[in-house]
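User: Can you predict the 3D structure for this chain?
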Amino acid sequence: MRTTYYVGVSLLALVIARPALAQDAASTSQASQVDDIIVTAAKREQTLQDVPISVSVTSAETIEQTQIRDLIDLQTVVPSLRVVQAAAVGQTNFFIRGFGNGAGNDGIESSVGVFVDGVYRSRTSSALDDLPEVQRIEVLRGPQSTLFGKNVSAGAISIVTARPSFDFGGSAEVSFGNYDSVQAKASVTGPLSDTVAVRLSGTTNTRDGVMHNLTTGNDINDRDRWSVRGDLLWRPSEDLSVRIIADYNTINEVCCGTVQLQNGPSSGAISALGLGAVGNPATRFDRNVVFDVDPRNELVGQGLSAQVDWNVGFADFTSITAYRNQTNASFQDVDFTGADLSYKNQANEISTFTQEFRLTSNGDGPLSWLVGAFYQDETLDTGVDTRFGTEMRAYANALSGGAINILETVQGLPVGTTYFQAGQGIQDFYTLDQTAYSVFGQADYRVTDRLTITGGLAYMSDEKKARSNVTLTDLFSQQNFATFAGGAFLGLNPLQFFYGNTANHGPVNYPNATESGVLKGDQVTYALRAAYDFDLFNVYASYSTGWKAGAYNLSSDSRPPSASGIGRTADPEDVTVYELGLKANFRGGYFNLAVFDQTIEGFQSNAYTGTGYSLVNAGEQSVRGAEIDAAWRPVEWLQLSGGVTYLDPKYDSFTGAPCASYDTVRCPTPATPSRDLSGQTPANIPEWTYSFSAVFTHDFGNGFEGYARAEYDYASDVALAENVPPSIATYGRENVNASIGLTYAPQDIEVMLWARNLTDEDTIIGAFPTVAQAESYSGFTNQPRTYGVTLRKRF
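Assistant: Here is the predicted structure, written as structure tokens:
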């Protein structure tokens, strides 16, 4: 690994330090320049080198050549972006510069906002459908509240799709790969009249599972997705255009598998009792599971949006109106063994209406400005039904050494048929109504031809109204052993999986006499920036703030407010960033550098505990780091590009962090509610991430052109979770992707061979405590090697 690291750094140094060679090469080649990249990161068209924001751009060509099929794949070409999918297809989390949260807990929104053609996607799962015909993807790093207005305290992902064309055209492609993978895409565009153009597109994506369930004999972690999209553009004049987009997508998959990282004594009891198989940590990368039933996921998303762009003379007026609805259901064997212990049905429905207005100045004067407003109205219904299976009683009684039988006898209850019966458990149901709005503005003033000063301001307001309907049918968890038989049965507390750590041993639903069920918050955020053009390079310095509203813990770990600080809500996040940047253009390439110091006060920590989520605010979390993006075409037939991110994160203050059972020093007893992580390195933020790619092209003549692309993606070792021992859950990433293609220009036909994770590297991408099995821990593996062939035709 160390050798690979030095090779990667040497390659980047070559890209950065040898612009003179590019100039020499360019004298013999007319095609040795990297074209200007147009972005809309600042809500107006600018070149990548001119916009004084740290942003990475992934082009349509890169998406095609690297077989990037969704946002999970995108992280292999954007080092500062990390994407993790957990136990269900709707549980995906995005991290930028190490900051991110929200996966699995419907009450907390991501710190990274996802936008598709300017429309905010409320929950991360809504961004998982296979990508449509994409023009580019912009990843904006750091808070973007003054322009995007909604939950972008860590950054934003902006997906820009291809607009309808008034020239007839289209494309079709089909890919075949291992695991019987078949993916097909088609898109057609053209005019309906002199003023109306349309684009219709669709995708299907199927694949056998890459994991195998030894208990049922079935494959899991498969692909079964399809989507359709209609895009209509009306341009009655040069000054007015209206774009209407409708989309529909479905996911119906057997997913997701987990492997065992460590088996504690309780897991051993399952095998000893002959209840079922338990996963073997030594064979975690065989990608076999032993669930007694297969997991299932069904997700349906649909949306309609309308964008109006109108040149009113002194300014351009933009309106984006959108409505989206998404339903998501999953079924999981949450004990992750072959025993019939426990299951979880989880479902939600999210309906979101958003409206944005913007007015952007025209003209060539020294002052340019933008003002706007954003509004969101969202309704969320979510529920989790967790129940015991038929073998839970035998398992629990064995763990207690027969004490549950004794307890039932002492209480005069039917022995063997009272506690831990099949069907008992907990049913969590919640509704959440959210209303949010912001008003924002930004002005750029060109002091001289070289110096530009930028100021941005936003006022953000958010209100959430939540209601819970939680029913505990687990009779054992309802017992208060401290007041029974002189506390003789207190040793049974660890088997109280739900509400065993509360005084009343049961849920307190809200709103109630002391809890209104309403969270309100507002904040003013701002950005100040100075940019100076030195001809050969541009430099900028910026100070910006961001904000994300408070959140509800919509899970079985939700508790009324307590002195420990671990309750059912979290306060807002406040972000500040100091950043210095340099952007250099040279013949054949560019080099961009950003150095930053970013702090989040009140970071919303959202740790999965196995039965729910511990949602709590960290006092302050910070990260200092640097990012590099570079590209260089030294000769006509070779294109090099690379990116490096270095992060030095720390909990400056986190005195109320949830306890972890393995941390016996700071959590000496199961009743200890919290621990102090101040001064420690947060989990899941690798110190180094980088990616490099090389694209070779060759003209064979007679219309035939070929290319070969190689790509290397690396992340240093990092502890994956704070409630899992680092000794068993510290992993990094080394990933190689490659493709080789041949095109026949006269017919615009292309054939491509491709591979992702070419070296079949094994790693763990997430970890958590195993449900109802003390000292046992589970994790998620990365995707194995996939490869195939793609046939593509454009017309």
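The CA atoms of residues 579 and 596 lie 4 Å apart. The helical segments are 2-17, 19-26, 60-65, 71-74, 145-148, 265-272, 392-399, 403-411.
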